[in-house]
Amino acid sequence: MDQNSVTPLWKGSSMIKGIALLLLFQLIGESIVFSSGIPLPGPVVGLVLLFVAMQFCKTMGFSLFSEAETAADGFLANLGLLFVPAGVGIVALWSELQSQAGILLAILVASAIITLAATVWTFIAVQRLIGRE
Amino acid sequence: MKRPTELWVYLSASPLLWLTLTLFAWLFAVAVSTRLKRHPLANPVLISIALLAGTLKLSGEPYEKFFAGAQYIHFLLGPATVAIAVPLYRQWRQVKRALVPMVAALVVGSFTAALSIMLMGAWGGLSRDVLIAFLPKSATAGVAMAISESLGGNPSLTAVLVVLTGIVGALVVTPFMNAMRIKDYAARGFAVGLTSHGIGTARAFDVDQTAGLFAGIAMALNAIATSLVVPLIVRLFL
């Protein structure tokens, strides 16, 4: 591209465009949840809509979402940081929960193992059932 | 010249201090985790939470003041959840190839994750509020917190339980699968991603590329499944 040409507004700041698109899909998701009353978190509806939109664009053969992909990679690479503010809220709850900490942890460990087992066995059993590999 | 205590009073009332501290706590925690070769126990989320919670305890500042600064980071959970569409889109071909076993494992796994908490929690005498915060613990934290909050649970408790679930799953998956003599790395990865979201996925990538790929897919799919399953279980049992 010619260095001296004026960058079109929309093509300019790609990071901003990526973030704006992610926020737009969250906004649409939140709007649908609010108006329809379906019991889903708005961002999850946004996730599904963005996925559908990306598949649609791929089928139609045009690319709209490369900046959104870059922004998404950035968010997902630092996802853990975003859990920290809420997690620190445990200090406000600690006095209440202290007495239950043992039972909570025991249930958590048992549930994790049961979930791992149920998931892996279902995956393998169904794979055998439909006769692949 | 003002006294240091006055400076603290001034700074601790502004979002700037707590936002900056949160970012540096995270950078420090990531450095520690990297030093310890990303061992699941050295989880950067848990280290950051411990550092910041300790700072609040020591300084006696209320959580509300901290959150006034940290809320700018918290806000980004929404777009970060939408962002999960991107890896799902990129791996869709893999998903389609094993669609039937995946959907079956997703349905069984997401119900098992929540129902096991429901049953053991009721048996263990947990209160309704704690149960609601506990049920979505296998979904990635942003989604789990949103589910918990929408049903009247405490998102902070959910966040901590989600991270702990991630760590536990990442720690037990390899010895457990080896003991069960399961050698299918796609199935192993899918199970740990479903159970232990991003932390399990990171662990799966350490063990095997295929396992990591399927773990990432399971995490994305279970974010959606959990937001359908948990409200249903709450409506049926609570």
Automatic annotation (TrEMBL), chain B:
Keyword Secreted in annotation: no
Gene Ontology CC terms: membrane
Alphabetically ordered keywords of this record: Membrane, Transmembrane, Transmembrane helix
Subcellular location: Membrane
Coiled coil: none
PANTHER family (UniProt xref): PLASTIDAL GLYCOLATE_GLYCERATE TRANSLOCATOR 1, CHLOROPLASTIC, PUTATIVE SEROTONIN TRANSPORTER
Protein name per UniProt: LrgB family protein
Species whose genome carries this gene: Mesorhizobium denitrificans
